[in-house]
Write a structure and sequence with these properties.
292 residues; alpha/beta; Rossmann fold; 13 strands
Length: 292
């Protein structure tokens, strides 16, 4: 039975990853900021979970006390609540730098980083995420490193700070109108189960992850959807006839990228492929959340 150290265990992606790997009989060491952060898993998995709170435990102690095989780093600060640049650097650069440094010292088998497909000059979040990639490159000759570059992932019961979850909340509440950009920018929306499955492929095939370079895996469906089409499709699926969509009332942000190319060839070479396209994924969310 292998042990995975999971940062960001109380986050959306972290929660799905923990349940998945626990169901596959891995042990999970869940890193939480403090006891206010709730890490939930199904009761049948409790025996395979060990929690640590970073406000009371030194990181090195966690590595000393446990025979860790794999580190999956998902902890991140998006900056959507107007967090300071200093806090974003602390969370997105300094903290994972400490983790990967200890992973090297304790000869961990594999370090998996969660990255973004966004260009570094989009915002402070993407800039700090890109900064940490430089540090992964620095350590990559000492430890196998897989870098998972995610496009817009979505799924049931996400927080409304995410665009799709926010839209669902707006349509569910029958708000009078929603201010939007023109919506011509396209994104590759990928369902949470497919994202988790991508991590599973990397863990199971970690012998394919070599040292000496960053092994990058872009995660997407290779199907582009415009923001406008997404919004209209979701409104139709929710049978919302009350909310007016005010496309063009919001300007594009500075440095807005209208189209991303997601290259999934590295993942597909391992046998992975996505199973859920956007409309089905949206239908899954509405069914699971009990929304008609």
């Amino acid at each position: 039975m292998k042990t995975i150290l999971l940062t960001g265990a109380t986050g959306y992606l972290g929660g799905y990853l923990s349940d998945h790997f626990l169901s596959k009989n891995y042990k999970i060491i869940a890193l939480c900021l403090n006891k206010k952060e709730v890490f939930n898993c199904k009761n049948i998995y409790e025996k395979n979970v060990k929690r640590y709170y970073l406000d009371t435990t030194e990181l090195q102690t966690i590595f000393k006390e446990n025979a860790i095989n794999i580190v999956i780093h998902t902890a991140t600060l998006y900056g959507k609540n107007k967090e300071s640049i200093e806090n974003m650097i602390q969370t997105n650069v300094i903290f994972p730098l400490k983790v990967i440094s200890l992973a090297v010292d304790y000869k961990i088998e594999l370090f998996i980083n969660t990255d973004t497909i966004l260009n570094k000059d989009i915002n402070a979040y993407s800039l700090t995420k890109n900064h940490f990639i430089d540090w992964i490159s620095h350590f990559s000759h000492k430890i196998p490193c897989a870098n998972m570059k995610l496009d817009h992932f979505y799924g049931p019961n996400d927080k409304p700070v995410k665009f799709i979850a926010w839209l669902i909340e707006q349509f569910k509440n029958n708000v009078e109108f929603i201010n939007l950009t023109e919506g011509s920018q396209t994104r590759d929306f990928i369902y949470i189960d497919d994202v988790v499955n991508a991590y599973d492929y990397i863990v199971k095939r970690h012998d394919k992850i070599c040292t000496g370079k960053i092994n990058t895996f872009e995660v997407g469906t290779n199907v582009k959807t415009s923001i406008k089409d997404l919004v209209i499709t979701l409104q139709s699926l929710m049978n919302n006839k009350k909310t007016k969509l005010k496309f063009g009332s919001v300007p594009y942000r500075d440095n807005e990228v209208l189209e991303y190319e997601v290259n999934t060839s590295a993942l597909r070479s391992l046998g992975w492929k996505p199973k859920t396209l956007l409309k089905q994924g949206l239908e899954n969310i509405l069914k699971i959340e009990g929304i008609k």
